[in-house]
Amino acid sequence: MNGLSYWQLLTLVAPETIVALTAIVVLGVDLLVMREEPLRNRFRIGAAFAALGCLAAIVWLFTLNLPSHALGADIALPMLKGMFVDDPLVRLVKVALLGLTIFTIIISMESSFTDHVGEYLALILLAAVGMMFLVAAEDILMIFISLELTSLSLYILTAFNKQNVKSAEAALKYFLFGGMSAAFTLFGLSLVYGLSGSTELREIGAKLNQPVLDPLLVAAIVMTVIGFGFKVAAVPFHLWAPDAYQGAPTPSAAFIASGSKVASFFIFAKVMMFGFSHASGSGAWHDYVPGWLPVLGILAAFSMLLGNLTAIAQSNVKRLLAYSAIAHGGYALLGILANGPQGVTALIYYVVTYGVTVLGAFAVVGVVEERAGDARLSDFAGLGRREPILAFCMMIFMLSLAGIPPLAGFFGKFYLFTAAVGGAKNLGLLWLVIFAIAMSAVSLYYYLQVLKQIYVVPAPGENRIVAAPISTRIIIALLAVVVLLLGCAPDLIVGPLLAAIQFAGFQ
User: Fold this and answer.
1) What are the backbone dihedrals phi and psi of residue 288, each rounded to the nearest 5 degrees, phi first?
2) Residues 6 or more apart from 439 whose CB is under 8 A from it?
3) Confidence class of residue 360 from pLDDT cuts 50, 70 and 90?
4) DSSP H stretches of helix in 64-164
5) Residue 249, preceding bond cis, omega within 30 degrees?
6) How far apart are CA 124 and CA 259, in angstroms?
């Protein structure tokens, strides 16, 4: 038959299948074989199995030689149209997600917040599977199902620390806000289906090509933006983030801040640029046209403003990173606002490098929290003398988040800002770029507050920070090297992204 055979289809979804089977294996090994072993051994063996499964999926993605294309109308299985897309860009994003998953698993190895090791690692892997299906979807039904698989896993991961009542509270808030956002997303997508008669994003974009915006289409766009605004923690849909980041186990918070953001921003860009391509409007200064671009412009501005200003007042580093994540969500929206291939490339580079950076920052926070019992700013006092390697790595992470050269965060912001003002039609976004630069300057203040505690403030006598495990030191140092390397040689990611973006259909 023409198109792909069933075997080829199974080959295409093999990475997701590998990770899902790994989740079952990890759960089975922990429950059936390792139950009586010490907690640390269970975590290490389970993490080794989980990381190997993710690594096998990455190897498969790099070695798969089948033609890259979307499952479209020319395929003999039309019911899969848009359900699963395989192109070089999707593969690169999947590799990034799997890499972040591996780092999350490794920084979990020395944790002691739960006895349910197999369940915890399996949920991380299932969340990764949901994210992989999410970035490969161009059908609104598949998008919604993948979002829910990812979200349900993350809700449970947030509540995994039964030793801390804040964990249950954070998970409840996350779940309630998430359920409400899912309702908005579903209502918005149902209106889209009613208006277009299709569930495939590119067909929806073609059928909604009208000279005047339909009121129902406006409602659909607003509801969809609300739903995805929650996933990326954009203001005013950010209220869950500070409590979730603070109450969740530190590795879970790191995964929410990294992998979840990569997948959510990528699919957000797809939905807006493919499904609502003819309703974009303009957010340019003195050239306003109704559409989703001005709405996202407002969300970006308020996210940067509230995230950065509120972070200044935080005394807990995990809450500080939560408000920082809200601000970085505002910066990342500039990539969608650029509304073109360059903007998508800048967006993916930015969220991937941000994910690596924030994973490293949370890993250091986890070390301090494990030893000091909390993650207050004062708990970091004297870290520079007691743990010079971790302190130096934390300095790299903080300065990268602030956008200081030659770190990855600097080039990420530079590339985003360049994409936002790169064309004549987008030059009107200069006002938003100038505002983003000003907010980046504000962010430097609270990042330096963390470094002040680490290097300037002496440790109190009761400070209980002790030497971190060698595996934790290695992985944190590796993350710091990656942040430095991607800042000095950004073409390691940007080059493959520019080559892959040609096949993805972004105009």
Assistant:
1) -70, 130
2) 304, 305, 308, 327, 330
3) very high
4) 88-107, 117-135, 140-158
5) no
6) 10
Q: Which residue has the tokens 């199995």?
A: 49
Residue 282: strand, helix, or coil: strand
Instruction: Assign 3-class secondary structure to 137-198.
Output: CCEHHHHHHHHHHHHHHHHHHHCCCCCCHHHHHHHHHHHHHHHHHHHHHHHHHHHHHHHHCC
Q: Quick one: residue 291, left, alpha or beta (phi over 0 = left, psi -120 to 50 = alpha)?
A: left
Report residue 482 as tokens.
């990656």
- Strand 85-86 relative to strand 287-289, pairing: unpaired
User: What number of residues does the chain have?
Assistant: 507
What stretch of H or E contains 289?
Answer: strand 287-289
Residue 85: in which H helix or E strand, if any? Answer: strand 85-86
Determine which helix (DSSP H) or strand (DSSP E) holds 227, and give its type and residue range. helix 215-231
Q: How far apart are CA 43 and CA 39, in angstroms?
A: 6
Angle at alpha carbon of residue 137, lines to 136 and 138, rounded to 5°: 130
Helix (H, G, I), strand (E, B) or coil at 288: strand
At residue 412, φ and ψ (nearest 5 deg) are -60, -50
Instruction: Supply 263's token pair.
Output: 């997948």
Sign of CA dihedral 102, 315, 180, 261: negative
Cα separation, 44 vs 66, in Å, equals 35
Residue with tokens 């969220």: 351
Q: Is there a contact between 247 and 255 (Cβ–Cβ < 8 Å)?
A: no
As given in the structure block, the two tokens for residue 117 are 């090791």
Closest CA to 253 of 70, 104, 434: 104
Separation of alpha carbons 273 and 275, rounded Å:
6
**Helix, strand or coil, per DSSP, at residue 316:** strand
Contact 291, 281 (CB under 8 A): yes
Helix, strand, coil shares of the chain, percent, nearest 5, are 75, 5, 25
Angle 389-44-171 from CA coordinates, rounded to 5°: 85
Please tell me the number of Cα atoms within 13 Å of 274 on its side-chain side: 22
Q: How far apart are the first and last CA of the chain?
A: 32
Task: Give residue-wise pLDDT tens across range 414-471.
Answer: 999 998 887 545 567 888 999 999 999 999 999 999 999 999 888 776 555 556 778 8
8 Å CB contact between 288 and 219: no
Residue among 319, 453, 477 nearest 386 (CA): 453
CA dist., res. 59 & res. 117, Å (int): 26
User: Tens digits of per-residue pLDDT, 26-52?
Assistant: 999 988 888 888 888 888 899 999 999
Q: Is the pTM of this model over 0.70?
A: yes
